[in-house]
Design brief:
About 40% of the residues lie in helices and about 25% in strands. Strands 1, 4, 5, 6, 7 and 13 form a 6-stranded mixed sheet that branches. A 5-stranded mixed sheet has the order 10-9-11-8-12. It is of the alpha/beta class. It has helices at about 1-20, 45-55, 70-80, 90-95, 145, 160-170, 180, 190-195, 220-235, 235-250; strands at about 25-30, 35-40, 40-45, 60-65, 85, 95-100, 105, 110-115, 135, 155, 175-180, 195-200, 205-215.
Length: about 260
Amino acid sequence: MKYFCCCFFIILGLFNCASAATGKLNVAVFLEPPYVDLVANKLVGENIDIIHLLAKSIGLKPVFLRCPPVRCLTMLKQGQADMILGLSKSSPREQHFIFLNPPYLLQHQPLRFFTLKSDNLTIKNFSDLTPLLVGTLRGALYFPLFDESQSIKKIELTSRKQLVNMLLKGRIDTFLEREETVLPLLSTTEYQDKFSMANYQYNKPMNSYIAISRQSKIKHYANELSQVLSKAISDGTIEKIRTKNRKKHLENPKHK
């Protein structure tokens, strides 16, 4: 019996090693320049490079599944995707996802409320949002006061491009985003001539995490991946990836 058990675990170990060598890591991604962008029909950006780093460490091949943010989260919950980057942590999310530690990014860019210059809207305080129709990204978490508010009228959209277009068409009064994710969606002239940012903003740093689906077959790699991530942060590898990609992003004519 002991011999049988030993053989079983050896075979299981060999099977797992073989799966790791030939298996795939299905990663749900949504376009969010400069973190994930589409250049010459190829996904690029620091998140893409970080995924390659993590996948290589466990012998898996990354397969990128493009999806709107809310669809990405659904795919992860259902185990149709193994991993996602760029999530903030919350108790409800922890029921479905395993968050790798530490966070791979501390987001310092403030969340801003974008408006049209022609509307001359004034948003100096949180209460100024009450009469407005605010565009949000479906499935996104912003900050607790805003997320939990029942007095603000919100309309959920599926992409940042939709948020920009709805504002330009006057179908929403404002939307909430970081400037670095809005700039790539507009020409410099259009951005400067038509958009303005409200005085009121949320400027507390926020942690961004990499998460694994609790339904995924690769969840047993969570501790190992956390260790790889921690080392890559401490030895400067992640910062080198970030610096290289930010430079490429700025040099790309698409973003000038």
